[in-house]
Amino acid sequence: MKKTSKNTMVTGVAWMTAANISSKILAAAYIIPWYSWFGDNKLQANALYTKGFTVYSLFLMLSTAGLPAAISKQISHYNSLGEYNSSFRLFKGSIVLAAVLGIIIGGLMWSLSPILAAGDYRMVSIFRSLASAVMIIPIMSVGRGFFQGFKDMKPSAISQFAEQLFRIIYMLVTTYIIMKIVKGSYVSGIIQSTFAAFIGAVAGTGVLIFFFMKKIKQYRSLREESIDDLTTSTVNLVVEVIKQAIPFIFVGVATSLYGLIDQYTFIPILEKYTNYTMYKINDIYTLFAGNANKLIMIIISLATAMAMTAIPILTESITKNDKSNAQNQIVNSMELLLSIMLPSAFGMAAVAKPLYIVFYGYGKFNNYGISVLKIACYMAIFQGVFLLLADILQGIYENKYAVLFTFYGIIIKLLVQLPLIIYFEAYGPLIATAIGMTFSSLLMVFHLRKNFVFESKKLIKTITQLLLGSIIMFILVLIIEKIFDLITLNRILCFLELLVLIIIGSLVYGYYLLKTNLAYQLLGERSLSIKRRFHIK
């Protein structure tokens, strides 16, 4: 791979990873006070919140219509041809399209709320509070796609962090007032917590506007240098984006469909095949769909960061007919992803007990919840790989295969869902998702291997080395965790234990990468200065 492409990839990944991880950490950290403020109703409150966001995610995917990735892809395409004016016309047309989609899909979610509630009247107001966010987020998403198309990840990263920060501030303030000051209903607290998505979207959009205005002179200079050989109308440019967006819609919606399948099958199946009360079933549902999911999203966000960075670079290589660079980029993307995801997943599984206690405290289903979290950590690896591979296929214009292979995975999920839930309850949906996404991922890898011949032996060797390092770190951290387990009796001690274990795990894995020269293979020259600083030979 050319050095410039690799540096662009590493820098972009650094920005997007930092934004994704910090945002997900914030999204997980607020749970500590927020969850406790609901008292005895905390599992029920979290169940309502989780159900609201599962449906919201589907409507959000429909309203953004795959536009961010498609716009990033097309702007990168036109920029690589020197057609900067076409890029800006595409951007303006897409803003209009996003505004229209937001109003239509947001209005649809508002209108369908009584039906989507499936008999639970509490969900109607929750769905409607989320519909307001659906109306504005498409515009914000188009803005992020614009910057990513220019391979400028900083504005998107800061926008994402601001969106999460302001959302959480609003959540915490309103929930505290409702639950602790006025002693209101936990349903009212959830309604304000979900409306916070709108507040965050406004903040995230504001950040993008700020960066656009800051770079306006730079953009004017690029437009003056535009070749302008293309005579395509703005309408046709937007139609092209829509065509490219459709596969992104399906793949994006697919991840939400996995959650919807769980939401609308798990409860009925347990109702039929067990004698559990609805209250208990809701509690168990929350363990995997709410509690565990919020924590593993920190890991899965790494795949999102990688995909956002890889798509414009891959598209540029394909546009310039540089197949060799595209091959290297595919391999480098997978290596970078697994170099972070494998230790993150194994590490989180090793510290599952103190992590769960820090966020959710001591209570009923505690041991069950910890076990579910461990399984969810391993499942996150399969989901992360699936997300990256699907976006890689779309970045190289293999859209129909991304859709087809994703569809096959969903079918597999549906086939194994019933027996796995019956026999494994809360673990069942997680295992079914892993099976479905693994099936899709294998098909994607075989397709990439066939059409973009890359050094698969080298990739397998690197993955094996990364897996070995992750397992070494996992075993060491787990041993230390068992020792700590003898003395950690409350959440504060668990938090201190967690910090120590994270530092130890990071140092062990970092040393392994540097000592085996994997760091050089992944990061290039940057790793050498780190080795010299820590006197590692």
Distance between the termini: 26 Å
Largest sheet: none
Total E-strand runs: 0
- Which regions are unreliable across 5 or more consecutive residues at pLDDT < 50? none
| H/I helix tally | 20
Compressed to H and E, one letter per element, the order equals HHHHHHHHHHHHHHHHHHHH
Question: Helical percent range?
Answer: over 70%
| Class derived from helix and strand content | mainly alpha
Proportion of residues in β-strands: under 5%
Describe the structure.
87% of the residues lie in helices and 0% in strands. It is mainly alpha-helical and 537 residues long.
SSE inventory with pairings:
Layout: H1 3-29, H2 31-37, H3 42-64, H4 67-80, H5 84-116, H6 122-149, H7 153-181, H8 186-214, H9 216-224, H10 234-273, H11 278-319, H12 323-350, H13 352-360, H14 366-395, H15 399-424, H16 427-451, H17 456-484, H18 491-515, H19 518-523, H20 526-533
Helix pairs in contact: 1-7, 1-11, 3-5, 3-6, 3-8, 3-10, 3-11, 4-5, 4-6, 4-10, 4-11, 5-6, 5-10, 6-7, 6-8, 7-8, 10-11, 10-14, 10-15, 11-12, 11-14, 12-14, 12-17, 13-14, 13-18, 14-15, 14-16, 15-16, 17-18
Core attributes:
537 residues; mainly alpha; 20 helices; globular
Can I get a quick summary?
The chain has 537 residues and is mostly helical.
